[in-house]
Amino acid sequence: MGRKRDIPVTIFYSEREYEDLRRNISKAKITPSTSRSSYIRDCSLGKDIKVIPGLRDVNNTLIKVVDELNLIKRKIDYGEVKEVGSNLDIIKEAITNIYKELNKISKKI
User: Fold this and answer.
1) Which of 13, 43, 53, 78 has the fewest CB atoms nearer than 10 Å to its CB?
2) Whole-angstrom distance, CA of residue 18 vs CA of residue 15
3) Cα 49 to chain center, whole Å?
4) Contact present, 69 and 91 (Cβ < 8 Å)
5) DSSP 3-state assignment of 24?
6) Is the same domain home to 22 and 44?
7) Same domain for 60 and 21?
8) Cα–Cα distances in Å, from 93 out to 10, 22, 104?
9) Structural domain tally of the chain?
10) Which domain, by its residues, includes 80?
């Protein structure tokens, strides 16, 4: 399966314009290495850029929870762990915190 977008576009910026772009990406809490193209594409196509404070932190916490679940699964698959009680308590607490943070964020929107 090929790329969804297969036409590259090169853009030249002055030093000041590039710094402005980086600053705007930073304000939008976007990771430049993964989403700079999306940000520029959305801006150029007139789409709304929504900044949701706190969402990046929730996402990072969720990634940690998923990593922990994958580690537990791997250990179970290899027979290294027979019981996961305390690890599941940590994960349950993390998921509860994520839920609380998402509720706070949704009230701000």
Assistant:
1) 78
2) 5
3) 15
4) yes
5) helix
6) yes
7) no
8) 46, 35, 17
9) 2
10) 55-108
Looking at the fold, whether 81 and 66 belong to one and the same domain comes out as yes
CA–CA separation, 39 vs 34, rounded Å? 10
- Residues contacting 87, CB < 8 A, separation 6+: 68, 72
Q: What is the pLDDT of residues 52-99, one digit of tens each?
A: 777 777 878 888 888 888 888 888 888 887 776 776 777 778 888 888
Q: Look up the pTM and report it.
A: 0.50
Token output for 72: 């537990």
Same-domain check for residues 39 and 2: yes
- Residue 83: Cβ within 10 Å count: 8
Please tell me whether residue 4 adopts helix, strand or coil conformation. Answer: coil
What integer is the mean pLDDT of 36-52?
81
- 43 and 4 belong to one structural domain: yes
Tokens at 67, concatenated: 């990593």
Same domain, 9 and 43: yes
